Each structure stands twice: as structure tokens, then as C-alpha cells.
């Protein structure tokens, strides 16, 4: 089912307009424009009704929006958060904000007051990733605080569709996150209720972990489902995304990339963002 007709003007590129990788300039202001898409080559057996299954890989008629990069402030210096955010302004598409409660994950980060303060410090759209229990209680507060996209974990919520509706009613995009050990299949049919799907490429809880390539099978499954249903949904990957991993994630069908260590561990965080985006574009534009 198609929904959210404001999609393309509120920060998401539409799917399937062309097969040329384009990065609209407006993306820097959080509006990703309306032009352009890329192709991804899915593996044999992944196309419905097409392709030569004897070949090792081939290109399906699957298009994805231009890639976006969301630096994760989990890897930033918490004593200078506003400065760290400004260091990626003009380069990043979204700012990824990891909220952890020390219950859903064994780590404790920041909460609503910090998000409210940061909101006043930057124009970057906030991509809030809630790694918390009881998201129905807390998530709408982040939408009210001005978060652009609020993502909660499927494992923590017994009625994800209801919460997605609440978030949209509060003016935010709604995101569903899938942790390392959670299969994606039970959630595919819920995707029309969501604007983003975040697939963990590590176990949620800590930055700086090693990327797990096997988890890209979930990305491929999601991309096939999104393409088959003509859904307008960003597929985001989070965990261990860096120069040596982003291309495989993009080729699998991801179009939004969270990167903490690879951005804030770099000498020039803005340049690191630009390089990651260029690599993701390269991985899909030639497919
Ligand atoms: O959600 C997260 C951890 O649960 C972080 O966003 C993720 O780990 C990003 O950090 P890095 O790029 O260093 O892996």
C-alpha cells in the first residue's frame, strides 16, 4: 500500500525514477529531493520472474534511492556534542542519535533532555534510534522534540504498527529496527506502516564492533520485499559501517548508512562522510 504522499518533499527520495545515481544538493538540508536512484544487483534467485539463475550474479530491475549517510554521535566526544555535530553539518544527511537505557541493551547513553538541547544546536535532521524497553511510552516524546525519524526495536514492542501510527501522528517518520539475532521475515508485512527499516549489522549496544556480513541477507530480503511491493521505505544499516564495508551493504540494497567510528574516529569527520557516501554511490551506480 502506498502512503505518505508528502514523502518526496519531507526528506525521502522516491524509488524508481531513473537508473542514474544522483545526489540532490538539497539533501544537505535534510530534504533529499526527488531525482535519481541507483540499481542494485541482487543474488541469483532473488529476482521475481527474471534473470539467469545459473549466473553468480546479475542485475534485477531493482532501484533504490540515492544513498544517505547518518553519522552516529555515539562515537563523538560527549563533552563537546554540539561541536561534534557541527563538524558534520554540510556533509551528513541525518544525525544518528543512539538512545540506550541499560535495559534493552547493556549500555546507557543519552535521553530526551540531551536530544532537546541538541535539537536547538543544529539544523540536521535527527535519526533517533531507541534501544530501549517500553518504546510506546517514550518514543512519541522524541517526535515531539523534533526528531525527524524515530526508530524503535521490534524486539521491544508488542504492537509496532500502533507505535508507528503514534509517531506519524506526532509528526515524525517511523522506523523499525531489527537486532542481530532477530529474523526479518515476521516483520516484512508490517513495512507499509514504516518509513525506515534499520537492520543491525552488529549486536545492538556498543559502537566500534566488527561488521557482520552475513546479516546482509536480511537487507537483501528487505530490498526484494520493498521492490516487489513498491514500498517507499529507506533500508538503513547500522554497525561497523566503514570504507571497507559500506559498498557490500549498498550492493545488498541498503540506502541509508549509520557510521560512528568511521566518521568520528577520522581526522576530518565531514570528509569521512563524503567518502562513505561516494563509496555507496559507486557500489550501486555501476550495477
Ligand atoms: O547502534 C549502534 C550501536 O548499537 C551504533 O549506531 C553503531 O554501533 C554505530 O557505531 P559504529 O559505526 O562505530 O559501529
Overall description:
The protein is an alpha/beta fold and 287 residues long. The protein has one domain (66-285): TIM Barrel (Alpha-Beta Barrel). Helix content is 26%, strand content 16%. The chain has eight helices and ten strands. The protein has helices at residues 81-86, 112-119, 135-144, 160-169, 216-229, 246-252, 261-264, 269-285; strands spanning 38-39, 63-64, 68-71, 95-100, 126-131, 149-153, 173-178, 196-200, 234-238, 256-259. The strands form two sheets. It has an eight-stranded parallel β-sheet with strand order 3-10-9-8-7-6-5-4. The protein has a two-stranded antiparallel sheet with strand order 1-2. β6, α4 (160-169) and β7 (173-178) form a beta-alpha-beta unit. α3 (135-144) runs parallel beside α4 (160-169) and α6 (246-252) packs across α8 (269-285). Mean pLDDT is 84; it is low at 1-35 and 44-58. The structure holds ribulose-5-phosphate. Ribulose-5-phosphate is lined by residues 72, 74-75, 96, 98, 129, 202, 204-209, 238-241, 258-262. Residues 72, 74-75, 96, 98, 129, 202, 204-209, 238-241, 258-262 line the site of ribulose-5-phosphate (5RP).
State the main characteristics.
287 residues; alpha/beta; TIM Barrel; eight-stranded parallel β-sheet; two-stranded antiparallel ribbon; 8 helices; globular; disordered N terminus; binds ribulose-5-phosphate; RibuloseP-bd_barrel; isomerase; metal-binding; Ribul_P_3_epim; metal ion binding
